[in-house]
Amino acid sequence: MSTLVTRESAASLPTMTWRAWSCQVRLVVTDAASLEPAAADLATLMDRVDLAASRFRADSELSRANANAGRPTAVSRLLVSLVQTALGEALRSSGALDPALGLDLQRLGYDRDIQLVCDLPAPVPPRPANRPDWRSIRLDPGAGLLTVPCGIALDLEPPFAATAPTPPPQSIGLHRPLPSKCRVAQQPRRRW
What we know:
It is a single chain. By secondary structure, this protein is of the alpha+beta class. The protein has a domain at 1-53. It is 29% helix and 15% strand. It contains five helices and six strands. The protein has helices at 35-53, 61-67, 77-92, 102-107, 157-163, and strands at 4-10, 13-20, 23-28, 73-74, 138-140, 145-147. Strands 1-2-3 form a three-stranded antiparallel beta sheet, covered by helices on one side. Helix 3 (77-92) crosses helix 5. It is globular.
């Protein structure tokens, strides 16, 4: 679970804040008795997403799929759902929200947590002209197989940062990385 940093009262509502994913996470509930269990549940969900979809963790499913480029990789239902959503947002935005920018971001120096990134000492080399794009990603949801094409790596942050206010499918619970500036109110799946 993420480390809790502060407790505060926002507009008379019980609130807890902590740092995770290089962001300030803020949880506001209406019932003070639900604050601790809700924070634990949210931190657990965020940890599940991190283990499934972080490109900064060598042990994440996403890192494993990126490392196995060109070959189908078995992934969890959670990562299938995240990739389906990312590909849907790429399609909806005509590629403006592109989940296939992982290698490009690494070339730009964003290959570790943003708090550890510093200015690059040298110019960034140009992007390869004929690299595959998001339309080349293959996902078999029924079999739970993800194939990342050679020449790209997935990074799921851009599609989710842009679509965070959309409630996720209820079948697996809250599972979208939410930028700290987003404010999302939604009925909890269970009563804390």
